[in-house]
Amino acid sequence: QVYLVESGGGLVQAGGSLRLSCAVSGRSVSYYTMGWFRQAPGKEREFVAAMIWNGESTLYSDSVKGRFAISRDYAKNTVYLQMNSLKPEDTAVYFCAADRSRKRTITFSGDEYEYWGQGTQVTISS
Fold it and tell me: What does the pLDDT profile of the chain (126 residues) look like in tens digits?
């Protein structure tokens, strides 16, 4: 069993930065394609970013490309989402997810990810 625990959310002003963390327990983070998703009130969950299990590629949604960066720390078995130039429309609950299939491509469909964290709230004030 794999457990994912997110942290790092909070309230910041537009233009600010936050770094979200996703601590992975149960297996090495290098085994999984790791993704970040978010869900704003009244909206469907949407893909934000992902890193393939072998670390060779990343994928970002158009709405965050150039502002967000996903990374991972093998020693800490943790995945990060660095968020810069934050906008009010980035306000959402952010979820970390793990895909164990080890496919050669990253999927942005949440249905392909088997493990999920509990989420962390990010609120951006204008």
Answer: 899 999 999 999 999 999 999 999 999 999 999 999 999 999 999 999 999 999 999 999 999 999 999 999 999 999 999 999 999 999 999 999 999 998 999 988 999 999 999 999 999 999
Q: How far apart are CA 20 and CA 31, in angstroms?
A: 20
CA quadruple 40, 43, 45, 51: dihedral, nearest 10? -60
Tokens encoding 46: 């949407």
- Residue ranges of the alpha helices (H) in the chain? none
User: Quick one: 64 exposed, middle or buried, by C-beta within 10 A (0-12, 13-18, 19+)?
Assistant: buried
DSSP-derived pairing of the beta strands 10-13 and 120-125: parallel
Give the residues across from 121 on adjacent strands: 93
25 token code pair: 């327990």
Handedness of CA 21, 26, 29, 33 (dihedral sign): negative
Q: Which of 43, 60, 38, 56 is nearest to 108 (CA)?
A: 60
